[in-house]
Amino acid sequence: MAYPTKNxxxxxxxxxxxxxxxxxxxxxxxxxEKQLKKLRKQACKTxxxxxxxxxxxxxxxxxxxxxxxxxxxxxxxxxxxKEKENAGPTNYWMDPQEAYKMCYEIARGKMKGRTMYVxxxxxxxxxxxxxxxxxxxxxxxxxxxxxxxxxxVGTDCYDVLGEDGDFIKGLHCKCDVDPEKRYIxxxxxxxxxxxxxxxxxxxxxxxxxxxxxxxxxxxGKNEGWMAEHMLILGVTYPDGTKKYIAAAFPSAxxxxxxxxxxxxxxxxxxxxxxxxxxxxxxxxxxxxxxxxWAVNPENGFFGVAPGTNEKSNPNALAxxxxxxxxxxxxxxxxxNTVWWEGLTKPAPEHLIDWLxxxxxxxxxxxxxxxxxxxxxxxxNCPCLSEAFNSKEGVPLDAIVFGGRRATTTPLVYxxxxxxxxxxxxxxxxxxxxAAATGAxxxxxHDPMAMKPFCGYHMGDYFAHWVEMGKKASNPPKIFNVNWxxxxxxxxxxxxxxxxxxxxxxxxxxxxxxSVDAQETAIGYVPYAKDIDLEGLDYSRDxxxxxxxxxxxxxxxxxxxxxxxxxxxxDKLPAELSENLKTLKANCAK
Length: 589
Ligand code: OXD
Ligand code: MN
Fold this sequence. Notes:
The chain is α/β, with parallel strands linked by helices. It has 17 helices and 32 strands. The chain folds into three domains: about 10-50 and about 70-225, Phosphoenolpyruvate Carboxykinase, domain 1 (3-Layer(aba) Sandwich), CATH 3.40.449.10; about 230-300 and about 390-589, Alpha-Beta Complex (Phosphoenolpyruvate Carboxykinase, domain 3); about 300-380, Phosphoenolpyruvate Carboxykinase, domain 2 (Beta Complex).
């Protein structure tokens, strides 16, 4: 057969995988619109996808996953390195030989009657020295079409590989979508990913979490860079100055909203602009200037639909108006468009819900799954930064961590220095969300928002952060934010969304040493007077209360962190235990 590549490793990977899974045919994806169009047509014919109203939503399609396959499955996601110790206590581990054997048994012959698609894709701009190439094999047209939005797919990836270049191998086989045989396996020492029995994005779009975070974090540790679960945004000042922030929040905690925020009116009137470079993943390197430079390796947004509306995130909503794939949202049969909770109020009178059932506001269930998604091309985003296409990426002024915390953590605070900032990231806790299976709203430790995505021992990961701080002579300042403080009635105490600009403003002022701060037990906290409240009906007293650092609470938090840290044993960097001691001592003062 004629192959579109001379790369022997690609050909061997495809042939071996085909021998195992026995597809009826192999289709080599070239990324052309002509080929994608044919696949969309085919998927609509089989019912895998539905065509939406092409006048209102041109190029948009709809897909439902199996009811049992709606989120990432952390308990079935494994790091398969030779030594168990190297996966660390926060990952599930399996011996690589055992894992390969098990996955091969599960996938054997499972593409019979199906087509295997070969997707060549680049994470990052094709050919950039900071980008990496992957080949994903899949038996799902839905995966091909999503990958064509989320990554840079095309035969130019083969040009980058040449005859002998290496790439990340990804084998995805839907098999029977059997939740008991669902496995998302990473072999960081072999640059390989195998995903079986799922068709949910986070488990099967292998360029995203599997490659760009789990495998890439491992590569980053060995090659001296970082792969982080971070949005990247740019703020342009009235005088044209540009500043960049990368921010890590756990899944479904508002990264997309922050990345695309529209500043309050008076900021806009003065000429401030916020632009989005990325909403989920940042690859970060030390530049020649000693600063940290970040690129977004993705090419689209795989965003959580519920809650996205004209007010919360008009830019994301605009991004979904064409060439977008919607998954597990509801369909409005009146005009064949989509709907999800929070899109409009009141809800339409009649919908088809994410399970395909008739739905009315009286149904008493959600019309869209809480983790329903849109897959939208980045180019659709009205506030996409020009820097999105920059090979070097953007220099970071600030790194921001943040979790969903009803109590304890103030609206914003700044770390004292890099290592204290690493400590602040390492002690992140957040309430779980619908992005992963399991209970939601449960407080858990999620260091740097990487608990589900770190491809190696978390203690080594902390040490790598400390090392990166040593390599960068001019590193960004590190902050922590919490948009989710609640009062006694469970009401959120900070308006969030566009008003988060007020906090970013303070953060960037701190980066240019143009505002003072109060030193507290946990770091630098703003004086309430320094958070701009212009145009907002919000009391300074409430602001004071969400800036307050309650030493008694932080003292218990410190005890709890000590417990959490125990699992890392010797691998916990001394820089972090020292910072924990300081926190404890500060709380006792
Ligand atoms: C995502 C996630 O889809 O974090 O980005 O789950
Ligand atoms: Mn994410």
